[in-house]
Design brief:
mainly alpha
Length: about 140
Amino acid sequence: MIKKLLDKTFIKFIAVGIVNTLIGTAVMFSFYNCFHFNYWISSAANYIVGSVVSYVLNKHFTFCNNERSWKILIKFIINIVFCYIIAYGIAKPSVFWLLSAASISAQENSAMLIGMILFVGLNYVGQRCFAFKKNNEEYEPEKIK
């Protein structure tokens, strides 16, 4: 199963993820540290901006999905929301417990970083196996050439 997930599509997903991470991280930490928005607004802004970029690039470049359907967009949004809630819902209490002696700012910045890491893993599996999964064929990963 792991070998099926780690193919050319995974490499493309990572490349798109680097672009999303640079853009989203700049938005998130700017919102939190410069504009003084709270943890949830700052991390949500990251995923709103990053999700727009992610949808376009992953749909067409990573997963080569040319279907024109609202269903795909809805599945993508469901995946993003699910991954966000799980990743950041786990990250914040875990980091606050581990770094209980640190400042709130250090705790929340660390929780946002851990949330990003959890989100990436969940999001890849969700996009590949749910949002952009082709319904009319068996799962057959691309081979690296």
